[in-house]
Amino acid sequence: MPETTNKIKALVSTKLTQGYRKNDFCYVPENELVRRAFVCEKHMEDPDEETCGCNRAFEGIRGYSTTTAKVAFVDMTREQYIDEYVKTNPFAAFYEKDEDYRKEIEEDAKWFLKAADSFEIGTVFEFRAGKFDVRDVEKGKL
Ligand SMILES: [Zn+2]
Prior knowledge:
It is a single chain. By secondary structure, this protein is α+β, with helices and mostly antiparallel strands. Helices cover about 25% and strands about 25% of the residues. It has one domain. The chain has helices at about 80-85, 90-95, 100-115; strands at about 5-15, 35, 60, 65, 70-75, 125-130, 130-135. The longest helix has 19 residues, at about 100-115. The termini are far apart. Zinc ion binds near residues 40, 43, 52 and 54.
């Protein structure tokens, strides 16, 4: 059968399950692609610290953060996704000259794709201390 679309599964921002944790937040518009957020050094250990939330959040590719993301179809190829993921990295200006760093970001993009691809459309994820976890939408709480 001929390929008619370029749809891939990826993680996008969602407000679904917001409030399952008391320190949830979602400032990324619904359905925007998300990626790994930059985690500040002082918050590496504690995803629940109350000052910035970096270690329990995804980052929208256009900025802002959310503690919740879902698996959705997006209309792009894997290559376009990886390119977008790399290009919109806040440190893009630096790794243009740093091939190793670029590779690292690409690997991260592939890891995100793999996570999305392993679950059904609509599955809600959180991302705490560098680890994905699925939220139980049916149950309505953690
Ligand atoms: Zn932080």
